Amino acid sequence: MKIFFRRLAEETKAAFDVNAANYLGDDIHRGEDLQEIDLCLAQASARLGRQVDVLYAGVGPGHLAARLVASSADIRAMYGVDYSSRMLALARESLGDCGTARLVRQDLLDPDLRRRWRQSFDVCLLLNNTLGNMVAPEGPVEARVRCLEVLHEVLRPGGNCVLSVYDFHRLEGLNGSYTPKLKILEKTSDGDFMLKLAANGHSYLFYSHWFTERELHDLVQSAGFRICAEARRGQRLIVVCER
């Protein structure tokens, strides 16, 4: 199975890289969830008595990051992390010469991330089912657990994580395709989807997992977080957690 999961992880990453320019643009499940993010930033800033340091994990092409740094007076610094060089190139265009944001190419599952940034941030953002698209050589469940443990480690005590994933109980519109470019090959009763992206004359396997509320609660609590607030928006579950 490790060989399969390693291949699945590589192809899922390749699919994101190839489709960087269209990332989330054709996904009807996405959302910005600015209400929850802005409230979290404001509350963290009020608690600390200063602006906050933010880690945006899986920053993608940077559209939301650009909106946040432009509109929020609560951000002191934002670090956007992504494994994809194409995503980061687009994020640099989105952010322009903004001095508040820094972009770093790094895999969220890289052990060096937690060593490098241990207790460095007040708020972490992990949005639009980034957690559900992760695969480690050991498997996707292990990837999700490890990712949340890393975010817990890089947060300062009392820090917050805003997490949004796709809601398993809101599966309408997923008959044969996930987005116009992602065709469903297989879906299981426990929320796993195997998809195929065809692009540039190649096809890539693509993994996605949709979460039940109970599953999400168990995951974040097992990583050491306490859930402070939660909401449903469209086909997303949103939780705000505290370290």
How would you summarize the topology of this molecule?
Elements: H1 2-18, H2 34-48, E1 52-57, H3 63-71, E2 75-82, H4 85-95, E3 101-105, H5 111-116, E4 121-126, H6 140-154, E5 155-166, E6 177-179, E7 182-187, E8 192-199, E9 202-209, H7 213-222, E10 226-233, E11 236-242
Parallel strand pairs: 1-2, 1-4, 2-3, 4-5
Antiparallel strand pairs: 5-11, 6-7, 7-8, 8-9, 10-11
What does this structure look like?
- With 243 residues, this protein is an alpha/beta fold.
- It has helices at residues 2-18, 34-48, 63-71, 85-95, 111-116, 140-154, 213-222, and strands spanning 52-57, 75-82, 101-105, 121-126, 155-166, 177-179, 182-187, 192-199, 202-209, 226-233, 236-242.
- The chain is globular.
- The chain is built from seven helices and eleven strands.
Kindly summarize this structure in a few lines.
The protein is of the alpha/beta class and 243 residues long.
List keywords for this structure.
alpha/beta; single chain; 243 residues
DSSP strand count: 11
First-to-last CA distance: 33 Å
Element order: H for helix, E for strand: HHEHEHEHEHEEEEEHEE
Uncertain parts: none
Question: How much β-strand is present in the residues?
Answer: 25-35%
What would the average pLDDT be, to the nearest integer?
Answer: 92
Structural class: alpha/beta
Helix content: 25-40%
Radius of gyration: 17 Å
**Within the largest sheet, what's the order of strands?**
3-2-1-4-5-11-10
Describe the largest sheet.
7 strands, mixed
